[in-house]
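Bug: token stream looks shifted between consecutive jobs. Job 1:
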Amino acid sequence: MAEQHNHTHDSHENHGSFKSYLIGYLISIVLTIIPLVVVLNDMFDKTVNMIIILIMAILQFIVQLFFFMHVREGEPGKPKWNVMALILGLLLVLTIVVGSIWIMMNNTVAH
């Protein structure tokens, strides 16, 4: 006798809706076009251009996390841990990068 299997999923896998993906895609396109227009039209000097590019990159990263990687979705209580682990990882990377740059800038050898 063949056993019937129920294929219902209770695994709480949440996937974004078409609307969520479309909104994330449109925001990503806008965040890509802004620095492109600023740089191609020579609107500001190099320092301001770099700041604008970095800000848009950070915003793009946030959009990717929340709209496409679904950081906030999942079981109740779990998204908090996902976001907290992400923040901890970013702080560690930032500390290593800034510390490395600081050491390299202040590593003068007197001859």
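Job 2, same session, no restart:
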Amino acid sequence: MGETVETRGDDRVDLIKGDTNQDGKADVWASDTDGDGKADLFQFDTDGDGEVNITLVDLDQDGKPDITVDGDGGHAPN
């Protein structure tokens, strides 16, 4: 795990959890962290090992990431 990034809230509800390469493991997540029903935390497993490689956070929910980090940013999927 690398640095821990700020999100809009402290909760996590996965709104989208997808298996894009059909290996039986999730590799993309879009999560709501503040309870408003809108995704603000986006994570991707780019190498198929089951671990998050890239985390994007959209703090103002304008569709443009405010923070991009390598790894799970301290917010590993459930």
